[in-house]
Write a structure and sequence with these properties.
Elements lengths: L9 E10 L5 H11 L5 E18 L4 E23 L2 E11 L5 E6 L5 E13 L5 E4 L6 E4 L1
Antiparallel strand pairs: 1-6, 2-3, 2-5, 2-6, 3-4, 4-5, 7-8
Amino acid sequence: MGVKVVRAFGSQAIYLGNIDHGKDIIDTLETFCLENEVKTAWVNILGALSKVDLAYYDQQTHNYVTRTFEGEFEILNGTGNVSLKENKPVIHMHLSLSGQDFGCFGGHLVKGTAVVFACEFMIHALAGHDPLFRGHDEVTGLPLWIY
């Protein structure tokens, strides 16, 4: 079949909100998830940033390559998920951004680096199963969903 993790979930709740100006996206959303007992979820964001570090994963070296962007950037799409690592909610998110030149770029959002100008979020918390956990995947070297 080619699929490792398959679980059926129902909806627990859908949360809509704003992230305060100057705050970090992942830190803020992970704190929200911890305080609201969100353990497995899908996350979408949109808004604008004044600084962010994005990364891509080099599949040969199994290392992230990171680049810092400073300026005015629109978040065209932010998509991520929530699962547990060491029994705490962690967010894995990718961003698509656009700058003043209207060119698009994106990558893996690095925790602690996104300085929000304005940001709206939706967290679709899932229920009905044990939460998903992240663990080391031998093939990719990434912390992927495990049973």
